[in-house]
Design goal:
- The C terminus is likely disordered.
- It is globular, with a radius of gyration of 20 Å.
- It has 326 residues and is mainly α.
- Strand 1 and strand 2 form a beta hairpin.
- It starts with 6 loop residues before the first helix and ends in a 16-residue tail after the last helix.
- It has one domain.
- Helix content is 71%, strand content 2%.
- A two-stranded antiparallel sheet has the order 1-2.
- Helix 2 packs antiparallel against helix 9, helix 4 packs parallel to helix 7 and helix 7 crosses helix 10.
- It contains 11 helices and 2 strands; from the N terminus they run H-H-H-H-H-H-E-E-H-H-H-H-H.
């Protein structure tokens, strides 16, 4: 399979990622601090602008079809990553992670996610190239995931400490319940133990892998070009941290978002399943995904206005997080 990813495009993409990550933690976030709404807005715009700028580069070098595939994959991954934000918020709240340390956890979590997703993406490309029937498996899996998300869209589980993953992790990893600033480990009674920051980071990594199992096959429904799949995926998750701080205070507003995400999964799963019989053009795929998300967001905003006008509606906000500059 011929890929649009020339050595120059790969080199340019990797250079942008390395430089931006170095600037992010090495310059702008050297000291732990609470990320403000203004700072999160600026960084969100920066990451989106970089993605659209890269999309223009793909258009110039490889044509409109590749650019549309990148944009569609980016939009799908970006929208599905919003569901990650709610889970991250639940984890941070349940474990009382200081607000000043949350950016650091997400930064290292995304660095690890880059490696894990690269392995999953290139492994998936290799398997699809060898076993074509996996397209049908992935398609049915995405449809099932969409139906499951729709059925469970109103279910909330904030009892992180009671989940078997967390309990197993606490048994296997010697840890303390005491935070030590930005440290992931500390000495306690003469032995090295994990702080709650390290346990939180591990939970974030497990969560990302679980979401990647859904989101990566969803992009395969758009294209199997490893360059397009990888770059659209990575650009989406690179902006996840700033998007978290931008949207975390407004998550209760998006009451119909999970319904929209479920519809996106069902659509891309159906697209993948029928690809051998009817190929949906990239432009149509982009339009359908954008329309689904626009409808779900509009319905959420209208629902919020109706609840506000009626003076009713449940309080969906998560507990206020402990703010610390330690």
């Amino acid at each position: 399979m011929h890929s649009v990813g020339t050595p120059a495009l790969w080199g340019g993409f990797l250079a942008v990622v390395v430089v931006m990550l170095a600037l992010d933690l090495g310059v702008f976030h050297r000291k732990a601090h609470v990320v403000s709404y203004r700072e999160a807005s600026i960084w969100s715009l920066v990451w989106v602008a970089l993605a659209f700028g890269f999309n223009w580069v793909v258009w110039s070098s490889s044509g409109s079809e590749a650019a549309l595939e990148f944009l569609t994959g980016y939009l799908i991954e970006k929208s599905l990553s919003i569901d990650n934000i709610f889970v991250f918020l639940v984890i941070f709240s349940a474990l009382n992670v200081p607000a000043a340390q949350q950016h650091r956890i997400l930064y290292w979590g995304i660095l690890s996610a880059l490696v894990l997703r690269a392995i999953m993406i290139f492994g998936g490309v290799a398997m699809l190239a060898r076993f074509h029937w996996l397209f049908y498996v992935f398609g049915v899996f995405l449809i099932a995931a969409g139906v499951k998300l729709f059925v469970q869209r109103s279910r909330e589980d904030r009892r992180i400490e009671q989940r078997w993953v967390f309990r197993t992790m606490r048994r296997l990893i010697p840890s303390t319940s005491r935070f030590e600033g930005s440290r992931f480990t500390t000495l306690e009674h003469g032995r090295r133990v994990a702080t709650p920051l390290l346990l939180t980071l591990i939970l974030i990594e497990i969560t990302d892998v679980m979401f990647a199992v859904d989101s990566i096959p969803a992009v395969f429904a758009v294209t199997t070009d490893p360059f397009i799949v990888f770059t659209s995926n990575i650009f989406a998750i690179l902006g996840l941290r700033s998007l978290f701080f931008l949207l975390s205070r407004m998550m209760a507003t998006f009451t119909h978002l999970k319904t929209g995400l479920a519809a996106v999964l069902v659509f891309v799963g159906t697209k993948m399943t029928i690809a051998d019989f009817f190929k949906i053009p990239a432009l149509i795929s982009l339009a359908v995904v954008a329309l689904i998300l626009a409808i779900s967001l509009t319905a959420s905003l209208l629902g919020k206005r109706a609840r506000r006008d009626s003076g009713g509606g449940p309080d969906l906000r998560l507990p206020r997080q402990r703010r610390s500059h330690g």
